[in-house]
Amino acid sequence: MRGAAVALALAGLGHTLWNGLVEPGTALAFGALITCGELARRDPGDPRDPSHPGGTRDPRGTRERDAWEADGGGDSPRAAAPGGRRPAPLASAGALAYALLGPDAAAPTHHGVLQIVTVVVTAALAGIVPHIARGRAPAADHLARRALTVAFAAACFQPLYNSGRLEQGIGQGPYLVLYLLLLLGLTALCDAVLAAALAAARTGWPYGPLLRDELRVQLGIGSAICATGVVMALGVAAAGLWALPVFCVPLLLTQLSFHRIAAIRTTYRQTITSLARATEIAGYTRPGHSRRVAALSCAVGRELGLSERELTVLEYAALMHDIGQLSLVDPVRAGATAGLPPAEARRIAALGGEVARQSGVPAEVAVIVERQADPYREQPALARIVRAVNAYDDLLGGSRHPGGPLAALEQLRLGTGRDYQPEVVECLARVLARGGRDRVVPVPPG
Question: Between the CA of residue 94 and those of 165, 226, 228, 236, 348, what are the distances in Å?
Answer without folding.
Answer: 25, 10, 8, 12, 54
